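Open question from group meeting: does this chain pack into something compact, or does most of it stay loose? Before anyone orders reagents, we agreed to write out a predicted structure and look at it together. Recording both the input and the output here so the notebook holds the full record.
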Amino acid sequence: MSVKDTVVIVKPKPLEDVSQDAVERIPLRSGRQIVVHGGDEEELISIVESGGEISLTVRLTDAGPVFTLRGAQLKLESTRSITLEAGTINLHAQEEAVLRSEGALKIDAAKTMDLHCDDDLRVEGKIIHLN
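Structure tokens returned:
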């Protein structure tokens, strides 16, 4: 799934009103700006909303890029698959988390798996196999 668009080269304008390591900004028709900060140890590319909130940051470091998205909703959509691969993956929901599959669902661990709940724990199924 790829999307193609026309590339437009925009000449950036110097920043006067942002921190001293900021080097340039590109104003967008929507009122947003692309702000580029250059530093000795890292570079930072941000999309700043018209109200001043930062919605996307790409921090380019010697250890690799770090992406930060801020917004009311984040949607990842793929016609085939989505793979998350890392040394550690943490998911944290402040209100509710739901994991749902219209097909099979498998949770597999090579080492100990802990399951903890501060309230009731329910396991429902036609047949529940233990061991």
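Observations to bring back to the group:
Residues 15-19 have pLDDT under 50 and may be disordered.
Strands lie at 22-27, 33-38, 42-48, 54-61, 64-69.
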